[in-house]
């Protein structure tokens, strides 16, 4: 029970929700292992966490490569001697209308949001089965609950992960926990992954009006992790009060 001493691997930990989660969990005594592509930024974050008295390490990770997720899990086990939680958080949202035919962006969202999460599960699951304990936390989105124009492919990747989470939970038996966390609009660098300039401007404006800080989502992830061994938090939805 609790967070102290747990070994947690987090993808997309160089920014936004992943970064806030790494900091909060480290403050609360977890050993956090950060993955993302930007190694310089990860090194800075690890230094900040360590200077504040926390325990952190990092591994440069591109979730589009299965071997990178395997290396991230290995790094966590080297660092903490075990793995308790994997947070599959890395994600991108280059959203647009279907008739804009930004097919490369559709592929990119499938590769990062869906395949990347599956690779995280594939890397962690063998250790979790061996340990007879483990927790998979997948960051999805309210975009998959209220589906809006321009968000079709993004929402599809997130709802695919929602489906995977439920199937994994049922297969996993009594030892593995599976949580999906659906944030609404959160103030992060997320809009910077939008490649359509008009859509990017509209989303950035909306985010600056209503978004909540990434620490709100970090607290929800911490809540799921701190539950007793027999309590599995399946789904958490957190939106700004002002979100439609
Ligand atoms: N912000 C929102 O309003 C919102 C709402 C609902 C759901 N979400 C979800 O929340 C998650 C985190 O997003 P965020 O809002 O915190 O955005 P963010 O600030 O842009 O952070 C995204 C993170 O993902 C990493 N990333 C991107 N591509 C990657 C790749 N190929 N391999 C490894 N890491 C990669 C980025 O790091 P590098 O560039 O260093 O790799 C960064 O650390 C995403 O899954 C997103 O879909 C966000």
How would you explain this protein's 3D organization?
By secondary structure, the chain is of the alpha/beta class. The protein has a single domain (7-238), classed as NAD(P)-binding Rossmann-like Domain (Rossmann fold). It is 48% helix and 16% strand. It contains 7 helices and 7 strands. The protein has helices at residues 16-27, 39-51, 66-80, 103-131, 152-172, 197-210, 214-225, and strands at 7-11, 31-36, 55-60, 85-88, 134-139, 176-183, 235-238. A 7-stranded parallel sheet has the order 3-2-1-4-5-6-7, with helices on both faces. Helix 3 packs parallel to helix 4 (103-131). The N and C termini lie far apart (36 Å). The relative contact order is 0.15. The structure holds NADP nicotinamide-adenine-dinucleotide phosphate.
Which small-molecule species are bound to the chains here? NADP nicotinamide-adenine-dinucleotide phosphate
Largest sheet composition:
7 strands, parallel
Q: Count up the helices.
A: 7
Rg, Cα atoms, Å: 17 Å
Q: How are strands sequenced across the largest beta sheet?
A: 3-2-1-4-5-6-7
How much helical structure, as a percent, in the residues?
40-55%
Structural class of the helix and strand makeup? alpha/beta
Pattern of helices and strands: EHEHEHEHEHEHHE
Based on CA inertia axes, which overall geometry fits?
globular
Find the CATH topology: Rossmann fold
Number of strands: 7
The CATH homologous superfamily corresponds to NAD(P)-binding Rossmann-like Domain
Question: Can you name the CATH architecture?
Answer: 3-Layer(aba) Sandwich
Distance between the termini: 36 Å
The first-level CATH class is given as Alpha Beta
The residue ranges in which pLDDT falls below 50 over 5 or more consecutive positions are none
Overall mean confidence score, pLDDT:
96
How many domain modules?
Answer: 1
Percentage beta strand: 15-25%
């Amino acid at each position: 029970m609790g967070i102290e001493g747990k070994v947690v691997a987090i993808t997309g930990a160089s920014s936004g929700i992943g970064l806030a989660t790494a900091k909060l969990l480290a403050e609360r005594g977890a050993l956090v292992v950060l993955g993302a592509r930007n190694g310089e930024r990860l090194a800075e974050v690890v230094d900040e966490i360590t200077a504040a008295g926390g325990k952190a390490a990092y591994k440069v990770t591109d979730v589009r490569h299965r071997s990178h997720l395997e290396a991230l899990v290995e790094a966590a086990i080297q660092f903490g001697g075990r793995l308790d939680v994997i947070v599959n958080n890395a994600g991108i949202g280059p959203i647009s209308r279907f008739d804009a035919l930004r097919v490369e962006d559709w592929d990119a969202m499938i590769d990062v949001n869906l395949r990347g999460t599956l690779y995280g599960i594939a890397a962690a699951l063998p250790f979790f089965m061996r340990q007879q304990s483990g927790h998979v936390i997948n960051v999805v989105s309210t975009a998959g609950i209220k589906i809006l124009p321009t968000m079709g492919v993004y929402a599809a990747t997130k709802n695919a992960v929602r489906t995977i989470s439920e199937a994994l939970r049922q297969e996993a038996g009594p030892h593995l926990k599976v949580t999906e966390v659906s944030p609404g609009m959160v103030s992060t660098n997320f809009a910077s992954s939008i490649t359509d300039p008009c859509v990017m401007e509209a989303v950035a404006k909306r985010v600056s009006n209503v978004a909540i800080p990434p620490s709100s989502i970090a607290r929800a992830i911490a809540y799921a992790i701190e539950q007793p061994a027999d309590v599995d938090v399946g789904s958490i939805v957190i939106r700004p009060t002002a979100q439609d």
